[in-house]
Design a protein that fits this description.
Length: 322
Amino acid sequence: MPRSQCTATIIPESGGAVQGWPGNLSKLQENWKLRLSDRDCIVAGPPRAASDLRFTVSRFLTPLPETPGYQARTLGPRTVNVERLEIFNALGEPLLRQTKARAYKLQQPLLYLPEGGLENFHFAWATGLIGPKRHQEFKIGTLIAANTSINLDTEAADFDARLGQRLFEVVNNSAIPASDPAFKLAPAFFESLKKRQAMAQEAELALKLIADKRVTDFRNVYLLPPAMLNDSERLRAAIVARLAQSDPVTDRPVRALGTILKALPAGIFSQLRSDEASLLRDVDRRTLASGLIERQADRGAPAALFLAGLIEGNCPGSFLPP
């Protein structure tokens, strides 16, 4: 219902309406998050005895191997990997049933090869895939649209504009809690930048998202356009500041920011700043800054002792500049 008619919204957990969608329906998920952030809400209604539709995805092997190592030793038929998608209506009647199978055969001539690692090393008969080599996937969106009345308009025409506007609103309002769905949409914003030339206000928004601790998902940050990477001084400072404030245990996603430092223009790290030196002295937090460590090569010989200390697994403070 419209946000004006409710005081709070339910944010579905894993498996709910906006989470757990297949990868090719991610745009639908993003649109739901934006709607729940800026104009709509979900409220609890009376429980229902049955759902309008039921989706079932099954994955299994047939026939099951007799023992864990049986498949590797036998010359008999190999197991078949089966994946099945079923859609049922409220009466339990099937609307769609589609099955994929991947089968293997013994390679000819017969080869008995070593496989696995130190923990599971073994010998096994070499096999090859029967049929097309390319892995076939269910086109979930197409199948749902063709067999149900669900609207899969996965990307509204004004989505990018609404997304940028909403993200500006939330990062500039410290009163909005981190639980607001908009903060989960940073990856969608970074992805939208690859579609067009980033404007000055979008570059500013990207820096604000990096700095805002309510933003914890930095997937797609590697899609920052070259023009923003060339504004390297501000981006460098923003990333280093965020890494220095992050918890090395609970904030592991910020490691994606650390890798962005590797893409900045050559030579920019020839002089080590005091904030970067402090980050590198922090034994735990520097694990988030792989790009900064790699770019110490810009400093040349003065960084040699420090890098040698990292390789040895020990970095005494004397290796770092004051």
